[in-house]
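It is worth pausing here to work through a concrete case rather than discussing structure prediction in the abstract. The textbook approach is simple: state the sequence, then state the predicted structure, then interpret. We follow exactly that order.
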Amino acid sequence: MRFICGLVSILLLTQLAASAQENGNVWSLQRCVQYAVEHNISIKQDSITARGARYTLKQSQLSQLPVANGSLSYGRSFGRSINPTTNQFVEGDYNFLSASGTANELLFSWMQVRSTIARNKYNLEASIADLDQLRDDVSLNVANSFLVALLAKEQVAISQNQVALSKAQLDQTVAFADAGRLPELNVAQLQSQLATDSATLINSIASYNSSLLDLKALMNLDFATSFDIDVPQVEVGDQLQVYSLQPEDVYRQAATHFGSVKASRLRVMGADKNLTAAKAGLWPQLYLGYQAGTNYSTNYFNYSYTPNGFQPSGITYNSANHAYDTVYSPSYTTAQTSVPFNSQFNNNFRQSLYLSLNFNIFNAWQSQYAVKQAKLNVASQQLNEYNAELTLKQNVYKAHNNALNSIQKYQAALRANDAATRALEFARKRYELGLTSTVDLLVTQNSQFNAASNLIIAKYDLIFKLKVIDYYLGKELKL
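Step two, the predicted structure:
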């Protein structure tokens, strides 16, 4: 029954792989890396952070332009107030409208604005370097997960071969037992071995499917998507140039392009510019200003006078004739007309041009402590730069050492597999001649199976270690 389950699992795996190939869903390492970089959530978040840094830089650049503001107010006044057009006290209600505008241009600020722009530029470049570093990290993680899936797929192939080998040996032993050449015990032993190999195959298939799910999760790919990985022809010998590379050479090359190191250096330069801007805040700032305004009110009138003769206005005593004479005064008719809206806006228009020197007399030492904080930030960023370089150097030396160790492990596993394969061939021939027992054959066969598995593990471990070196050298991760 276990043998049947193993064959069914093999059939299902073959059908799934064929279906994935027919649907065009066989993915290479480059395709997996590209998809992960485009859909990774952390990369998208860092992209938003970089966009925010770009907006900050753009805003600081635009701050060099003049600042202009305008205001417009409309209302109604009640009771005693000052007429906005005549500046005289008036009684009564009236409507009013006023408009004004101001513009200011910073003429000199001791390089504060320029230093702020430079700081924001370095911060933007650091954000882009962080984003590049994250893309490289995601690519390396995908490569690692891809190689784990490749290893699992190779383990499935080895287990399939083991099942096929055990099945062939079982058929041969059954034939020998029917002919009386071997006892039934040998048949039972091989049936047990076939069942064990079938269970191993089922476990290998489960591990492979699990590795595919892990790879999908890392790529942010829908789990329901038909998916299989391409098995490239990888020649390990062509990738052993690490022998000729010294770790210091790898480190120097990595330091020129590694995102974390570039970002830390850029942030040091940004902190220096921020210190310059903070120091500039201690000095006065010179502005050129312009103001303009006008107003309108409904109680602003023009008056005209028309003479209409004389009217008695009093009497006076005439001492010459001892009589009273009547006094006449000219009489006028007064006409009141509202001043039009356009005329008031034109007549009341005012403007001024001025220079302004702004300086802090006392602001609770905020400017002084801003300088001190900026100095501390410079020191902190310098430590971050040193730490990034030190971490990179440690990782490069460790990766180089791991690669050399993996080369030795792979070569040892290769020799062990060759020896185990030759031993299995001799054991088979001896078994066919009846010169060795079934138990000895199975022990030799299991040794060869373990040696083949160890060789595959050593191979893909070496490939990954070499890809880590390529990662530090800035090479494209491909197989």
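Step three, interpretation. The domain at 2-68+108-287+363-473 is CATH 1.20.1600.10 (Outer membrane efflux proteins (OEP)). The CA atoms of residues 329 and 456 lie 128 Å apart.
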